[in-house]
Amino acid sequence: MNSPQNIVQYLYKNDAYSQWLGIEIIEVKIGYCKLKMKVRKEMLNGFKITHGGISYSLADTALAFASNTHGKKCISMETSISHIECVQNGDCLTAVSKELSKTEKTALYLITIFNQNKQEVAYFKGTVYRTSKDWEIHE
Amino acid sequence: MNSPQNIVQYLYKNDAYSQWLGIEIIEVKIGYCKLKMKVRKEMLNGFKITHGGISYSLADTALAFASNTHGKKCISMETSISHIECVQNGDCLTAVSKELSKTEKTALYLITIFNQNKQEVAYFKGTVYRTSKDWEIHE
Amino acid sequence: MNSPQNIVQYLYKNDAYSQWLGIEIIEVKIGYCKLKMKVRKEMLNGFKITHGGISYSLADTALAFASNTHGKKCISMETSISHIECVQNGDCLTAVSKELSKTEKTALYLITIFNQNKQEVAYFKGTVYRTSKDWEIHE
Amino acid sequence: MNSPQNIVQYLYKNDAYSQWLGIEIIEVKIGYCKLKMKVRKEMLNGFKITHGGISYSLADTALAFASNTHGKKCISMETSISHIECVQNGDCLTAVSKELSKTEKTALYLITIFNQNKQEVAYFKGTVYRTSKDWEIHE
Predict the structure, then answer these.
(1) pTM to 2 decimals?
(2) pLDDT top residue among C136 and C1
(3) Percent of chain B, pLDDT > 70?
(4) So what's the pLDDT on residue C139?
(5) Residue A137 in 3-state DSSP?
(6) Separation in Å, CA of B100 to nearest CA in chain D
(7) Chain D neighbors of B108, CB-CB under 8 A
C-alpha cells in the first residue's frame, strides 16, 4: 500500500545515510513529516560545533520524506539553509516540515530545525521536482 | 604560523565529520581551496543515489576552509545548493571554491562540485560572517 | 524620535522606487511590517503576467523596513524568493514580515506575499547585515 | 521563426517593466544573453542607493531571456541574489548569464551583474521550470 507512512518507511529503510545520522521518524502524514536526531561527536567540525552539513542533511531527509508522501517520486532541486544558532555535541534536533506550495511538477517546503530547548537553529527551504513516476510499494 | 595552509590543517585535524566523509585537501591558498572525496555506500539515500547532504557537506567544508584562510575566524550564515546531476556510489567528488566578494564583516563564495568525469554535479553559494577574532595557531 | 514608525516613514519618504511601486504602509512595529501595493500594467513582463522583480521589490522593501525598526541601520546581503503563483495585472499584493532570528551583526526575515484572495504568491527569505550605525531622526 | 533572437525580441517588446527599467539587449544566443541598463533616480531607495529590486529585476529579465532561447516556454521558480557592492544613481549595469545546467524539465542559470567599472555588484542564481509549450512566433 502506498500510504504516506509506507512510502517513508521504505525510503528510510533504504537510506543508509539517514540511518548513520540516527534519524528517527516521529510523525508522517500527507505532505508532512517530523523527524528527530541526536548530535554525536563524529558530527562536529573544526570549531567543535556541529558541522553545517548535519542540520542540512536532517532537513534534506525531511524534504525527501514530506514531498514523497503524495505518492509521486520527487527529487530535490534547489535548497537553501540559514544557520541561526550553533548546535552543540549532544543536542537533540527536531525537523518539522511545512508544505508551502505544490503544483503538478514542483513543490516547495519550509523545514524548521529546533534544538531540545525548542530554540530554532536553522531554516531550510527546498524545491523538489515531482516526476511522473508513482510509488508502488508491495509488501 | 597563521598561513592559509596551517589554518586549514588545524581546522581539518579537528573536524571529525569531514574526516568521516573522507575529505582530502588538494590545494589551499589565500581565499581558495580544492577538496576531494569518494562516495561510499553509507552515504546513499532511499533512492540508492548519494544523499544531498553529502555534496552539501563537502561544499560547506570548502566554504569553511576557503573563508578562514584570510586569518580571521569565519562562520557560515546562509548557504544554498543546486543539485544538477545525480551522484552515484563510488563517484569521486572534487570541490573548487571561488571567492566572489569579501568585505570587512562578510564574504561570499561559489563552490562548484565536479564528479570524476569533470561533470558539474552541484553549485553551492555561501555567505560567511567574518568575526573580529584572529586565528592564532602555535605549533 | 527613533520609533519604528518614524524610521520607516523616513525610509519610505526617501525611497523613490517604493513610491513608484505604489507601496502603502499598513502596519509597523519592532521587527515587523505589513505593506500593500496594487499591480499596474507597467509592471508586467513578456508573458503578460507580473514581472518577478515586482514581488521581489515589494519583499525587499519589507525587509528593509522590518530590519531597520530596531534602530540600527541594516543592509540587505543575501535574499531568495520562490514564486508560487502567477500575479496578474490589477492584483493587490500584501507583504507580511516575520523575524526569524536576530544577532548583534545579522538578522534573518521571512516575508510572505499574498494576493487579494489571501493566496500565497511568493516566499522571500532575507539576511541583513546590522551595521553599528544608529538611526537618528530629528523632526 | 523561433530563433533565440526572435524569441527574446518578442519577449522584450511585450515586457512593459523591462522597458520601464530601460533594459537594452546587447547579445543573445542559445542559452545566453547580455543586457544593459542605466540606473535612474526613481530607482533609488531610502538610503539613496539603488533599491535591491532593481538589480534583481535586471537579473530576472536576463533569466527569462536566456532560458527561453531554447524554444520552450520557461517560468522562473526559485531565485536568489547576493548584493556585493552598492549601486549608485547613474551607474550603468551589465547582466551576463551562464547556463549551469539544463534538463528536460528544469534549467539553472548564474547571472552576474557588473557596473561600468567592471566591478561585480550582484550574483543571481535562478532555476526555471521548462514547460512543454514551444514558442511559435509568426512575423
Answers:
(1) 0.91
(2) C136
(3) 99
(4) 60
(5) coil
(6) 8
(7) 82, 84, 123
Predicted complex ipTM: 0.95
Q: What is the pLDDT of residues D18-70, one digit of tens each?
A: 999 999 999 999 999 999 999 999 999 999 999 999 999 999 999 999 999 99
Q: Return the beta strands (E) in B50-119 as ranges.
A: 72-83, 92-102, 106-114
CA distance D94 to D111: 10
With an 8 Å Cβ cutoff, are C101 and A80 in contact? no
- Smallest CA–CA distance, residue A107 to chain D, in Å, is 10
> Domain D4-134 classified CATH 1.25.40.10?
no
> Nearest-CA residue of chain D relative to A101?
D77
Task: Inform me whether the C-beta atom of residue D80 falls under 8 Å from chain A C-beta atoms.
Answer: yes
Fold observed for domain B4-132:
Thiol Ester Dehydrase; Chain A (3.10.129)
Q: Work out the number of other CB atoms within 10 angstroms of the CB of residue C73.
A: 17
d(CA C84, CA C82): 6
Angle at C32 between CA C29 and CA C37, to 5 degrees: 105
> What band does A139 get if pLDDT is binned at 50, 70 and 90?
low
Query: How many residues are there in chain C?
Result: 139
pLDDT score at D139: 60
Residue ranges covered by each domain of chain D = 4-134
Q: Is D41 exposed, middle or buried (0-12, 13-18, 19+ CB in 10 A)?
A: exposed
What's the length of chain A? 139
Closest CA to C135 of C30, C34, C59: C30
* Rounded-to-integer distance, Cα D27 and Cα D34, Å: 5
In this complex, the residue of D10, D46, D80 whose CB is nearest that of residue C15 is D46
* The pLDDT of residue A122 is above 90: yes
pLDDT on residue C134 = 92
The alpha carbon of C62 is separated from its chain's Cα centroid by a whole number of angstroms, namely: 2
Which one, of B124, B125, B74, lies nearest residue B103 by Cα? B74
Q: Between B120 and B138, whose confidence is greater? A: B120
What are B82's three cell numbers? 543546486
CB contact at 8 A, B61 and B108? no
